[in-house]
Amino acid sequence: MLLAAVHRNVSAIECKSSGSRAKSTALATHSPPHNNNNNSMLRLRRNCAFKFCPLSAVLSNAIPPKAGSDNHISGSSSNNNHTHTNNKHTNNNTGRCTATGEKKNDCASQDMLNMWNSWRKAQQQILERRAREDRKDKRAKGISDVAQRQPVEYQKIDMEALDGSVLESGIYDDRPMLFFGKDEYTKQVVANPEEMQNILKSFHNFRDIIESMGNDHHEADFGLGTPKVLTEEPESIDPFEAIEPYINPLDKSKPSSVTAVATPNANAAVIAKSKKRFKSKVHVNEEQERLAKQRALNINLNTYLNVVRKSTLPHMSEGLMTIHLYNILLHGYAGKGSFDRVEELFKLIEEDGLAFNEQTYVAVFECLGRLEPDEQNQQLISKYIAKAENEGFSLNQIMDQSKFVADQRDIALDAIRRLRPDFKPVYVPPQLGYDNELLNHLNEHVLPIRGYSTAQLEQLAREQLKIELDGSITIKSIEKSKEFANSEKCRERLKELEETWRKQITSAIVRDLNTLRAQVRFKPHGFMNYYTYLKTLDTSHFADILIKELYKLAEGSETFSPTVGQLYKELGQKVQQRYKIEQKKHNGTLEKIGEIYSSYCELWDSGKSQDNTRQAWQRLVHEQRESGPSMDLPEVPWPSNVLTGVGRFLYNILMRDIKIDAHVMRLKSKTKASATQTQNMLPAFYTLFRNQGRFVKEEVKPHPVLSRLLRASRQQTLTFDSNLVPMLCPPQPWSTPHNGGYLLNKSELIRLPHQAIQQWDRIAASNPQHLYPALDSLNQLASVPWRVNTQLLDVIIEVFQNGGNAKLDVPQPPSSLPPLPTLPAKDVDGNAASNADRAKQFRDKLGHRRKQAEMYSLWCDALYRLSLAQHYRDKVFWLPHNMDFRGRVYPVPPHLNHLGSDLARSMLIFDQAQPLGVDGFSWLKLHCINLTGLKKRDSVRERLLYAEEIMPEILDSADNPLTGRMWWSKSDEPWQTLACCMEIANVYRSADPAAYLSRFPIHQDGSCNGLQHYAALGRDEAGARSVNLAPSAIPQDVYSAVAVLVERSRKTDAQNGLHVAEALAGFVRRKVIKQTVMTTVYGVTRYGARLQIARQLKDIDEFPKDWVWPASTYLTTKTFESLREMFTSTREIQDWFTECARLISGVCSQNVEWITPLGLPVVQPYNRQEMKHSPRTGFKVSSNFSMDMYERPNILKQKNAFPPNFIHSLDSSHMMLTSLHCERQGITFVSVHDCFWTHANTVPELNRMCREQFVALHSQPILEQLSQFMRHTYSFKDNDFTNDGSVEDLSKRQLNRTLKQLPQKGDFDLRNVLDSVYFFS
Fold it and tell me: Catalytic activity annotated for this protein (predicted)?
């Protein structure tokens, strides 16, 4: 087969023009030998314009070598200034180029144990030659222009005289090369111009890509310790050398041996330069930089080996860093029964000084179990059993502590039972209970969830599995749009185009993968590119991914498009997601999940279990450990650099191979005339550059013809990824940090940026029992079944399809925005428009465009939400949950959930109905009045009386939501109010309200919850009363209280003649300062507070607009002063948090971390990012990427974010405590952060547990425990001080003092919270 490929470092016959060497890429075509087992190779220079002479003439020696010239391999003058190396030899053959040697196998299967010593020797020789040639070239500069324009000549090379180690080393020229063989297919290709054009197309497509990416960033290959060769002249230092010695993490030698390679004659300036003080904006010191590189290499190797062991394994010639990486290779060879390779790895393990662990022995037994059970096999099994037992590993321990995929467990057991037939492994059951002072009393049975039969749940699970295996779900859109006359014709053409695109994509994938395969083939060992990752899927999968992305891009808005970087990452993530699904299908995980989930469904039906969902799942997994794969396998995510590289590969195909006919919209029938009409094929996508804040980003746009075709075809469907929609069955419970959520799709437990690995390390090092509270709370929230409120949904869809309504927060389409008035060329007096008028028009246009973009974004969000709600309107569904790094929980599906706006919350109700009971109807009416916001300062009794007064309005709203008096539309939360009115009407008209089965959720909302936690931490009496921690007859309103203090201060200033205070007379209102008071606890800055207040003042029509900015500055200062006066302890605690974080991040150069009261480790992921753009390294896997634990923290973000983040971790702990106690009592519980939902009949129980858990939480010494943790983690010891009075020494002492200086506390009694009616109401 003829392989067309681009290869940067392959050369054979040189195309010479006697001129300067131009940097060039390479075109390589590979085929079996052509004549007498010789390979004919044609090398072309790029500056020859790639005009190929007839290949048949080349093969028949039509172009003889230059008379008297020596054949040689030359290196191009690349960016590294490498000069050519002459390998002189004599070729007595005819003019054909000859080469001998066996055909090479794929790169991944090349024998890395062979050629290693010869490679190092050859590489060193080449480097020395290049240094000498470089000096010669510098002395012989001056090549005339006439010489540069001399005709092209080709020079033959006898490959027999070439040492094979040169090709193995990868140090050769950057020239195109063609390989020709002798088979019939090769002859056909050579004789077929179209086939040759395909080869040239492959080269032209990749030439610019590889050059543009490969020259941006120079990095050493993986696993290579390049020898350093310093000659006597400073300018001859080879570009491979680094001024700072590179310490190969795979090298077992000491660091000092690396620098010993340098000769004594090395330039003193170079040596002096290596001793300069370490400078980096990202890393703290050289040690951190080295650890970051080593960790990055470890991650890359881990991912790479996990992928490559599924196909063809590499052969190792150098050691790896950990036994874990060796185990991956061992299992790969064990799966093939290659015990010889396993023994070779044992030698490397011994050389590295690593010890076997349980997983190593399992790999050995698996390998031996796949071999024939002869006498030698049994002796080996006996040998390694004895070795394991001598090292303290029992067979039970080996089987219990190891992880298995596919049939590994069964094969290993079979090998052991060849010697010990009666062996049956004993697996240690998991720890199921809590290890937390706040939760130890819950280590008992939980009331089960009922309502679904085993058959129902199994059918739902089958439907869910089908969706996840498909990878996406397509639903009908609710968009109301008129049908175009040519819609049907456009749909047909779009379908034809899709078939054509799919063929083009498939062909391009094969072509470009062959290119990468050839690139890797002749690279040095240790080189890793994306070929291995891209070979994990079939071309059909890539075609599906690109077709879906193609439609998504084509349907985008005019004002927003994804950037190229975003598209790289998104495409890479989709490839990884599909790979994970395919992996589970083939390694037995899918089948075992089905078996365990079936048993899980039986527990839901029977209700016999006394476990919560996590404990039940763990028991079922443990019971089925006898055979099959392990269920607690931590998935190995691809590093961000791999995702980007894989996405870039697909992006190049999307941009270069997807074409569209510019005449496709013409409606002529397919007559003979139209059939012969020439097509104008153009790229379907292009890029443009657009300002995004301070940066200019490259965005991807569809061709206008493609956009018009899609609009005309009026696609009435929407497609969502399967991990973005609700589940049709109960989610898999979180049992480990890596297993939970969707059945097959990967769900992340914690939402973290890709560079944040420090928190994952803390979680991995934690006792699993310390994570159970957070996992169980997520499981409890995910176990609540939902359904759509169809009665309300129909009303919302009607409003949406009729153009939306801004007052009701139903987004309007951008077309509803009135156009801007045009600026006349001349005014009424005949004068031209002034510069000020034109500038104003330009600003108005920008604002108009921004408003259009905002409207379109909101409209799309509503379209997705309503379309999904319509799709699930008659179905029960579940929402898997995860959390952010602070512990705050969120539903995983982003479009249809109970978080978000008033409209989003109003559409969902509980699936399981419960009778209202005696007080349920009263709670329903009280909830309705709370939603309106009309009686915030009134007592519960007054609110219920008001509900009876307006009952006619409530009933009218329910009966005639859009045609009646629409009382509900004046509410603070109109759609939730309307939904509640509908439920009240149903109950009001029922025969027995107490027996009415209600699905409606009732909310209990915290009263400025952040300040509640601050007041409880500081035991602040005044602050506690203002946020309803203390009992009172009517609810206290902290916003009104702050407004009173601000108004008092304003009056004093006005009396003293301050003009801004006089201008604010009558305008210091609760609404003006509410947002600032609410967000001050979450770290709002003075600038942000000023913007908030200015926005409120602008909305007051009577307020003079000239005073908006001065008044907002004044009110910001007064609001902060009033808060400090009212919440003294709060401000002191906040200041202590800020100062601790400033010193930790500034003095220690570490991220701020802590452990929540429920045991969840938290690390703030704010670091300096030196590189705004990811380095491009062609198609080679980059060796470095950002990791927070090795980088300098962003001090400003660390100190500003610590106070709000710590409070968020406390409110999430309170929510989780309430969640777990409700679960134990069988009470439905749902959380929207500090707003708790339940059925109407269980509100009293929820209120009781909410208050009890708040008191229990703050009865813990939270600040004392935080101070102790930070002192243990960050404090300096006595021997760390220099006692020289330096700034550094004083800063260390200040850190130690600050961490010990706890804020003063008040004398508020927390038990008052138990009797406070308005604490949560």
Answer: RNA(n) + a ribonucleoside 5'-triphosphate = RNA(n+1) + diphosphate
- The answer to whether the CB of 596 falls within 8 A of the CB of 618 is no
* Distance between CA atoms of residues 775 and 593, nearest Å: 19
* Cα 1238 to Cα 684, 780, 786, 1243, 1252, distances in angstroms: 51, 13, 12, 6, 17
**First-last CA distance in the chain:** 75
Q: Identify whether the C-beta of residue 21 lies closer than 8 Å to the C-beta of residue 77.
A: yes
What span, in angstroms and rounded, lies between the C-alpha atoms of 1045 and 1039?
Answer: 10
Angle between helices 1287-1300 and 1262-1274 in degrees, nearest 10:
150
Rg (CA), the chain: 36
725 near 731, Cβ under 8 Å? no
**What residues are annotated to the active site?**
1005, 1074, 1234
Cα(984)–Cα(954) distance, rounded to whole angstroms?
8
For residue 983, which of 1038, 923, 1023 has the smallest C-alpha distance?
923
Question: Residue length, the chain?
Answer: 1321
Residue 476 phi, psi dihedral angles, 5° rounding: -85, 135
pLDDT the model gives residue 157: 45
Q: Is 810:796 a contact under the CB 8 Å cutoff?
A: yes
Residue 823 is given by DSSP the state: P
Question: What are the tens digits of pLDDT across the range 611-657?
Answer: 889 999 999 999 999 889 999 887 888 888 889 889 999 999 999 99
Mean pLDDT of 176-192: 58
Phi, psi of 691 (to 5 degrees): -70, 130
- Distance separating alpha carbons of residues 994 and 317, to the nearest angstrom: 77
Residues 6+ apart with CB under 8 A from 295: 757, 1187, 1190
Q: DSSP 3-state assignment of 882?
A: strand
Q: What is the 3-state secondary structure (H, E, C) of 480-511?
A: CCCCCCCHHHHHHHHHHHHHHHHHHHHHHHHH
Q: Provide the token pair at 699.
A: 């965005």
Token output for 1205: 């983040």
Alpha carbons 834 and 837: distance in angstroms, whole number: 5
Q: Tell me the backbone φ, ψ of residue 5, rounded to 5 degrees.
A: -155, 155
Q: Is 101 helix (H, G, I), strand (E, B) or coil?
A: coil
Q: Is the dihedral of CA 1106, 1108, 1112, 1115 positive or negative?
A: positive
| Rounded Cα–Cα distance for residues 302 and 304 (Å) | 6
CA gap 784, 779 in Å, rounded = 9
Is 339 within 8 Å of 376 (Cβ atoms)? no
Q: Which amino acid is at 590?
A: L
pTM equals 0.78
3-state secondary structure of 879: coil
Least Cα distance to 820 among 795, 848, 799 occurs for: 848
